[in-house]
Amino acid sequence: MRKLPFDRNWIEETAKKWPTPFHVYDAKGIRENAKRLKKAFAWNDGFREYFAVKAAPNPHLMKLLRDGFGFGSDCSSMAELVLAEKVGNVGESIMFTSNDTPAEEFLKAWELGAIVNLDDITHWDFLLETLAGAGVGRDFAGRVMCCRYNPGPLKGGNAIIGKPEEAKYGFTRDQLFKCYAKMRDAGVKRFGLHTMVASNELDPEYIVDTAKLLFTLAGELHDALGIDFEFVNIGGGIGIPYRPDQKAMDLERVGEGIRDAYCELVEGKGMKPIRLYMECGRCITGPYGYLVAKVRHIKDTYRLYAGLDACMSNLMRPALYGAYHEIVVPGKEGAAERKVYDVTGSLCENNDKFAIQRELPVLERGDYVVICDAGAHGHAMGFQYNGKLRSAELLLEEDGSVRQIRRAETLDDYFATLDFPSP
Ligand SMILES: Cc1ncc(COP(=O)(O)O)c(C=O)c1O
């Protein structure tokens, strides 16, 4: 059974001020984890994590990671760029890893001095056109340009991200050589190289292999084009153990494995030092966010249903991917009497279920349930289908205090975009 950083009393007190459902993030857990990540890669001079904003786009969390640990922001949209700017992550503290990118987002990223990570060979000319159209100077010498590599078929691919050759992202190998040559000829002097071939991956060797692939490719690009790489970015995708039988990623093993690869493929080949970057989201905040909800109804038909006051607009991973999230019932952790439930939300969608046929302590109306590992790609994926509103986000500080870092939506928010009087 998962150990929570709060208990039923805390929920009862907190819910008086912020009614359920709400998301709560554990600041202590996030900080300890960030420290561990940095330590595992401390051997690499200039190692940097660019927190994937899409995982938890809340400026309070982004600031916690920036101020405490120097984490940059990996952005993929205008809103994420503006969030990064607002928390003080500008210049090379932003990695702009986008795809199907509109001109105004390239322009914003350029104006912020972000590291622009191109997703396609045609985007280099598109960027040049965009800058010319906006009358922006083309000082490429000081800019770091990066390209996203799609290696095509890889030993079976990764469960969530699928097979790279079926993914819409990135350049082929041949395109990569052509684009770096074009950028070099246009006056770019600073380069990075990116790929992301994993999602929710728990095998350390997969991440080490990603780094090996990039170190090798950086060497080949150097030999062919005479350019040096300041960094390689291994993307996000480090997994977390959603299921009780899964083991957390061994970050120290990943760090050591990549260090060995670095010694062999970078230092051993006489290449200039390369900084290691990553843009993880899930493994940074995922295990430290909880969706707290209340049992609204118990229904006994062909199955036993526990209907919550939360629904898939608060956490859609189970409905979207059939993802498993552990559920804890505070105050009933050790209960001997258990039953099997489908734990549902109130959307008119039969897949609005947080758990299917899950054995839990016997539930009653008014019980609180805590859905674990909701701290990344959780609140962020929320939507308003069926007129459901998104919940508040709270931050549990190390001293036990709690503060709201995003209020719950109201009906006025729902009506805000309608050209019609609000109620
Ligand atoms: C380009 C890119 N970078 C980073 C991430 C973060 O992935 P994760 O949260 O699994 O680490 C994603 C996730 O979708 C992504 O698309």
CATH topology of the largest domain, which one?
TIM Barrel
Domain tally: 2
CATH class of the largest domain: Alpha Beta
How widely separated are the two ends? Answer: 44 Å
Largest sheet features: 9 strands, mixed
- CATH architecture group name of the largest domain: Alpha-Beta Barrel
Mean pLDDT: 96
CATH homologous superfamily heading of the largest domain? Alanine racemase
How does this model look, in words?
- It is a single chain.
- It is built from twelve helices and 17 strands.
- The two termini are 44 Å apart.
- The longest helix has 22 residues.
- Strands 1, 10, 11, 12, 13, 14, 15, 16 and 17 form a nine-stranded mixed β-sheet that branches. The chain has an eight-stranded parallel beta barrel with strand order 2-3-4-5-6-7-8-9, surrounded by five helices.
- The protein is globular.
- It has two domains: 191 residues, Alpha-Beta Barrel (TIM Barrel); 129 residues, Lyase, Ornithine Decarboxylase, Chain A, domain 1 (Beta Barrel).
- The model has no long low-confidence stretch (mean pLDDT 96).
- The chain has 423 residues and is α/β, with parallel strands linked by helices.
- The structure holds pyridoxal-5'-phosphate.
